[in-house]
Write a structure and sequence with these properties.
Strand content: over 45%
Number of domains: 1
Distance between the termini: 6 Å
Number of helices: 1
Radius of gyration: 12 Å
Structural class: mainly beta
């Protein structure tokens, strides 16, 4: 099992959600790319951090 932490910054609002763009580590490719989060949860949040657990 390995865990990766991915950071996102606000990109734009859509009708019912907020789109965040991944900020990849320097020299590495993005893992997720864009992340859509429902407005009721995201609120005015400008950055998010998520952890992804990969079960091998």
């Amino acid at each position: 099992m390995s865990v990766v932490t991915v950071h996102f910054e606000f990109e734009k609002e859509t009708k019912n959600s907020v789109r965040y763009k991944e900020i990849p580590e320097q020299g590495k490719a993005p893992i997720v790319g864009s992340l859509y989060v429902q407005k009721w949860f995201a609120g005015e949040t400008k950055s998010l951090t998520i952890s992804i657990e990969k079960n091998e």
